[in-house]
Amino acid sequence: MKAIATTIPDVLILEPKVFGDDRGFFFESFNEQVFRSLTGVDAVFVQDNHSRSVKNVLRGLHYQINQPQGKLVRVVAGEVYDVAVDLRRSSPTFGQWVGDYLSAANKKQLWVPAGFAHGFLVLSDNAEFLYKTTDYYAPEYERCIIWNDADLNIAWPTDEKPALSAKDKTGSAFNQAEVFL
Questions:
Q1: Nearest alpha carbon to residue 100 among 2, 4, 23, 1
Q2: Which domain, by its residues, includes 100?
Q3: Which pLDDT value is given to residue 128?
Q4: What is the pTM of this model?
Q5: Is residue 181 one of the residues assigned to a domain?
Q6: Dist. CA 42–CA 21, nearest whole Å
Q7: Burial level of 28, CB count in 10 A (0-12/13-18/19+)?
């Protein structure tokens, strides 16, 4: 596995070493020792989540203001455009975002540290999205920033208005959102 830097140093793309032939493929999707040595992150994952969404569904931009979650995300069917937004006011990259294409074909993973909002847009007919979290889901602390916030100006790869949940339709503006110190 190798770690690839993004424009936000704490967010990393992880590319596994895939062993394949005409029978199929094998790769190690997670190894705690390798993850720690590549990222320098001493994370303990406490929850695994799996979601399935159809084309043009956008989930996000979600975060928990208390019990913040680091997330290791990947796609096992289909393709998404995945985004992380730095919400750490003391960070030199506060208010900046990074995005990348994650798919079953490229097998890439994205490490999204605690203190970031996270979201993704489904580009294929459907997608199955898996993620490990460093803290438990706590709905009372969940917050959402609107996907098309003008200050963030995220370049979502779509010309269509995405399908959103009721919660995501009422996300707050970035300049009004609760953020981390």
A1: 4
A2: 2-176
A3: 98
A4: 0.95
A5: no
A6: 34
A7: exposed
DSSP calls for 97-164: EEEEEEETTT--EEEE-TTEEEEEEE-SSEEEEEEEESS---GGGEEEB-TT-TTT----S-SSPPB-
> Average pLDDT for consecutive 10-residue bins of the chain (181 residues)?
95 95 94 94 96 98 98 98 98 98 98 98 98 98 98 97 97 97 93
* CATH code, 72: 2.60.120.10
Instruction: Return the residue matching tokens 């009372």.
Output: 140
The C-alpha atoms of residue 21 and residue 14 are separated, in whole angstroms, by 22
Q: For residue 128, what are its two tokens? A: 């199955």
Is 143 part of a structural domain of the chain? Answer: yes
Q: How far is CA 56 from CA 18, 79, 105, 128, 181, in A?
A: 29, 11, 19, 13, 33
Give me the active site residues, please. Answer: 62, 131
Between strands 116-122 and 79-86, the pairing is antiparallel
What is the H or E stretch that residue 33 is in? helix 32-39
H-run or E-run covering 69: none
CB distance 114 to 41 below 8 Å? no
